[in-house]
Amino acid sequence: MNYPFKKIEEKWQRKWLRKKIFQVKPQPQRKKYYLLEMFPYPSGKIHMGHVRNYSIGDVAARFKMMQGYNVLHPIGFDAFGQPAENAALKNKVHPQAWTMNCIDWMRRELKQMGFAYDWEREISTCLQEYYRWNQWIFLKMYEKGLVYKKEAVVNWCPDCETTLANEEVIDGKCWRCKNEVVQKDLEQWFIKITAYKQRLLEDLDKLKYWPERVITMQKNWLGKSEGVQIYFKLKQTQEIIPVFTTRQDTIFGATYLVLAPEHPLVKKIIKGNPQEKEVLEFIDKVSKESKILRLACGVKKEGIFTGSYAINPVNNEQIPIWVADYVLLEYGTGAIMAVPAHDQRDFLFAQEHNLPMRIVIQAPGSRIQTPNQMTEACEGPGIQVNSGQFDGLTNEQAKIKIAAWMEEVGIGKSQVYWRLRDWLISRQRYWGTPIPIVYCDRCGIVPVPEDDLPVKLPQKVKISGCGGSPLSYVDSFVRTKCPKCHSRARRETDTMATFIDSSWYFLRFCSPRFTQYPFDKQEVAYWMPVDQYIGGIEHAIMHLLYSRFFTKFLRDLGLLDFDEPFIRLLTQGMVLKDGEVMSKSRGNIVDPDPIIKKYGADTLRLYILFAAPPEVEMEWSQQNIEGAFRFLNRVWRMLTLIPKKSKSKTFNPGLEKRMHKTIKEVTRDLESFKLNTAISRIMELVNEIYQNLNTDITAAVKTVVILLAPIAPHLAEEMWLRLGHKESIFKTNWPKYEARFLEEEVITMVIQINGKLRSKIEVPVDINEDRLKEIVLADKKLKPWIQERPIKNFILVPKKLVNLVI
RNA sequence: GCCGAGGUGGCGGAAUGGCUUACGCGGCGGUCUCAAAAACCGUUGAGGGCAACCUCGUGUGGGUUCGACUCCCACCCUCGGCACCA
Question: Would you list the DSSP string of A112-162?
Fold first, then answer.
């Protein structure tokens, strides 16, 4: 007989909700704990990734509650976004109706899993009570000069018919639909996230409890690179060509200059040269090449001589200027100095085109004297040669000295380049937050006044799926009055990228119904920052970077008094099926719903937490879920194994010891999110109970139930009731182990000879070394190993082992 | 190329420098039963031996150590991020 999980789960889900046991308010005298999982996009049904993410979070939330913390554990829906529009097109429903319907579904499924959320705090970003604050924050940024509109070459997804942020382009493809992204000249809204780049980088050091790889990914994304901008001069006109390098120590080896094909100077310097026509053809050819192809590794670098020369400012040498496709306009100054002897790309290019090389750094121990002995560029450290007054220095010393000297004589200056670009936030979509801007013929760009917020998203709109912002066809929306001069004006018809919505939702959860500001400062002061954040690694760059930026901005506004929103971050691994990520397109989805029906939510939770450590990817296994179910039944059955008159059974000190040991280990494991081993330790205690059914097991069973409560809450709550408790198990204090129970009187010591296990002995824990030695030497099992050989060394690891060296 | 994570039984995975493989899955055997399922109990790294027991075994090769999955060096492979980044 299986335990009646269905009845139990429904009953407790109802009761918890009715008794509001997970609803919280700030209580200044109590320690708070804000536990947050990344809120879901409401796509319809929950998937195993959600189940895993929220199960991990739920264990932590319930565990912290039982430890006495005032735990904020909210949930909501990241409800704006393109899938709603696609669904609208396909199913002829309004995006709003589709989204709200999905939310209803998901809410029901989340409740079925028994997650301990404060449902009173539920938010949806597509509701105007939420998105008006997106607009409010946008206007604040506008006020501070952090929002601007400009015409720029932007990423455009022809399939989604909208612009994309740099962060949304992955390998030249749209992050959502995986189609190739093209470049387009468009006037678009940007947020100046680059104004915060230094702080975004520096404060990474404060994130001591974030996974190393997330920190690294953010560092890479920010891409700070320190070097020198060197002023080369055009020979004919003395015009300055700035060049950025991080290897100023190789400047004396610069034997030619390369401009990006799009560089504005190119057309100027070829004018009238015999090479003019050829160069123009080359530029034309490159411009037609796909960017992805051009940037691909291993493709042969192509280039052409311009016919003009530049002057190297350190030695007044005349060097040829080339144009080549391996130099990018977007990075640095769009021009490089080429040092073929010390840069591999330059080396290959120089070989191909017979350009001169000069060695200026001698690698230690290398006998290479002339460039034609080289098979590859020497990019490592060494001693400066052929470098004027810098000869003899190590190249690291030379880097510093050359930079200083250049600044002094005015031929260059120290410079820092970043990879991070401003954040393009306008989207040509309907289902998003309208950008609160008005265009007036007289006043130009006018921000909507705060009092006029929200700029509501109109209901009646035609989603055609072809071209431009759907809002631009909604006359009643577009036509408006200028807030300044009250003459006729037009509204901005682009909407905001949905990453804006999720950049501050963790603040909204603190006071979800507040109407004066995005959040109540006092409530935020109590709950924030988030103590533990849990979500997928796919958000390592975009969402987490934007959230960090928003937090810093709101701090500068004086609304917050901290500058990092998430203290601890756990990135959970993906759920795989047959070694592949579960996904709709692969058709290998396992739907949680039938699993819940067949085994119950507690079994699914237990299984998914036990299968692998939270941060590692896990493989779905039907067999193992049966195992989890079996275990819960085994736990349940213990109720019937506790005899009516347990006092008649003998007290079992061994079991009591084991119980305390388990409390200690499970507590430690839950604290560090080693959920799989926490479960295994509870299993061990259960096994121990089954081995001791002829003794009094009551206390041990009670312990199992409490320790299991965060993991299988329904089962634990029901057993707790049946064990005679009136209060919810989640109002119980987490048990404390007593150290005196963990002290052993007799221990097993391992005896090794030359590091190999040869025997084991049982000895009193407080045995002295001389006595121990006697016992060891008398051990019969050791005789054949020792024979008559003298013992050179007697190594004792107290309470563990003895190693004899012979 | 740079950065990060990892490589342990048939499988998922445990192991503050000290008994490799906890816990679970799967396999094998038993108890109960007319029988089966369920449950409960036992067993399960490989090779050798009648047996006590022995040898080998944590990606590869070295090193440090009385002793290395763990620390150091070199390399191989897998996964993830960044990248003609100047």
Answer: HTT----GGG-EETTSHHHHHHHHHHHHHHHHTT-EEEEEEEEEEETTTTE
Q: Give distance CA A98 / C1' B6 (Å).
A: 42
* Crossing angle of helices A601-610 and A48-66, rounded to 10°: 90
Eight-class DSSP state of A316: T
pLDDT for the residue numbered A467: 63
Sign of CA dihedral A476, A482, A486, A490: negative
Answer for the pair A661, A682: CB distance below 8 angstroms, yes or no.
no
First-to-last C-alpha distance (Å) of chain A = 60
ipTM here: 0.94
The nucleotide minimizing the C1' distance to residue A379's CA is B1
CA atoms within 13 A on the CB side of A643: 12
**Nearest nucleotide by C1' position to the A2 CA atom:** B38
Protein CA at A362 to nucleotide C1' at B36, angstroms: 82
Q: Closest nucleotide to A297's CA, by C1' atom? A: B84
Closest to A36 in 3D by CA, of A613, A500, A539: A539
Nearest nucleotide (C1') to alpha carbon of A248: B86
Torsion of CA A90, A94, A96, A100, to 10 degrees: -70
Distances (CA, A) of A519 to A26, A34, A559: 14, 16, 9
Residues contacting residue A545 through CB under 8 Å, at least 6 positions apart: A167, A193, A200, A218, A221
Protein residue with the closest CA to the C1' atom of nucleotide B65:
A755
| Closest alpha carbon to A682 in A618, A739, A735, A623 | A735
CA of A708 to C1' of B42 (A): 28
DSSP A733: P
The count of C-alpha atoms lying within 13 angstroms of the C-alpha of A120, restricted to the half-sphere facing its C-beta, is 15
Using CA atoms, how far residue A149 sits from A414, A425, A437, in Å, is 30, 10, 11
Q: Determine how many CB atoms are found less than 10 A away from the CB of residue A126.
A: 25
Nucleotide closest to residue A618 (CA–C1'): B12
Rounded-to-integer distance, Cα A672 and Cα A666, Å: 10
Give CA A786 to chain center in angstroms: 57
DSSP character for A650? B
Residue nearest to nucleotide B6 (CA to C1'): A616
CA to C1' distance (Å), from A305 to B60 = 49
- Strand B bases near protein CB (under 7 Å) are 3-5, 11-16, 18-20, 22-26, 38-42, 54-55, 66-68, 80-86
Cβ(A308)–Cβ(A272) below 8 Å: no
pTM of the shown model: 0.91
**CA dist., res. A13 & res. A17, Å (int):** 6
**Rounded to 10 degrees, what is the CA torsion of A130, A132, A135, A141?**
-70
Closest CA to A287 of A322, A256, A329: A329
The Å distance, CA of A677 to C1' of B70, is 19
- A232: closest CA among A412, A457, A490? A412
What would the pLDDT profile of A432-490 be if each residue is shown by its tens digit? 999 999 999 999 999 999 999 999 999 988 876 666 788 999 999 999 999 999 999 99
From the CA of A25 to the C1' of B61: give the distance in Å. 61
User: A558: pLDDT confidence band, cut at 50, 70 and 90?
Assistant: very high
Residues A310 and A57: their CA atoms lie apart, in Å, by 61
Query: Looking up tokens 């109970």, which residue turns up?
Result: A689
Q: Can you spell out the DSSP letters for A492-550?
A: ---EE-TTTGGGSHHHHTTSTT--SSSS-HHHHHHHPSEEEEEEEGGGTTHHHHHHHHH
* Protein CA at A744 to nucleotide C1' at B69, angstroms: 28
Segment A575-591 mean pLDDT = 79
